[in-house]
Fold non-specific serine/threonine protein kinase.
Amino acid sequence: NIDAPINEKLPLMNLAALKAATRNFSTANKLGEGGFGPVYKGKLLDGREVAVKRLARNSKQGLEELRSEVQLIAKLGHRNLVRLLGCCLEGKEMLLVYEYLPNGSLDGFLNDNVKRKRLDWKQRYKIIEGIARGLLYLHQESQYRIIHRDLKTSNILLDEDLNPKISDFGLARLFEESQYVGNTRNVAGTYGYMPPEYAIHGRFSTKSDVFSFGVIVLEIVMGRSIGSFHNSDSNNLQGHAWRHWTRGSYFELLDRCLGNRYIESEVVRCIHIALLCIQEDTDQRPTMSSVVVMLSSYTMNLA
Ligand code: ACK
């Protein structure tokens, strides 16, 4: 059962050992800067490669509460989620140890001319479907209702077979008092992927993730055929995206990106799903479970 929890109990790791594994969090070992802080590459004593996320810890956060939140994240196990292997909460440090995914982020793939060539249409479809399944699991299938709140291509990592895995899920909860559907005054996240109700009113729900998913699908679809789009237009796309999308100019954008190329029906299908997801009215957006049904009914037709 791929949806069964993997980690029943999360190993607590020792700070000195983690420092050694990451060479004291040296810049040479730094993979990059994630939404919640720097990410380092390390190697555990048993030889496993890991990614260590170093989160800023706020002094007001109670240790017990953090522990139980992290335990909850660790209980989430799905093939489309990056697996949490352990954590360390010592002194001011809050370190989360994840499986290492050698292919890095989807963002890195779409932005790299050479890597992007490895993403043929079938591969892209598989990535879209995998993200949808991971998100559905977070929203509904796990016993907890997790809203990601910062879903974007740099938070989607690819394994050696280019299967997508969502990362940073549950982290928004570590920094928020209101934990479920609700309002927040500190709007955090990435503007281009943010739905209007969140950007303007700070309201979030599973439908906020649905919106971000729609933007990701458009990026995956367009990345393929438009070469330098991500480089030359990234400010445009990330900056005022939702205004852009909701005014209907996304049709123009799609037209510019896809041109008169022959467009496969699966591509049209994905664009259609994406447009449903980025509607302004949250009630009009589909749930992730209908998205998964729409995507898989297509796969069945193919067979
Ligand atoms: O595209 P990247 O190489 O993949 O650069 C970013 C960077 O850290 C900041 O998020 C990389 N990264 C994050 N988590 C992991 C992981 N579990 N395995 C491999 N790379 C990771 C991400």
Remarks:
- Residues 121-141 form the longest helix (21 residues).
- Strands lie at 30-34, 37-43, 49-55, 84-90, 93-99, 156-158, 164-166, 182-183, 203-204.
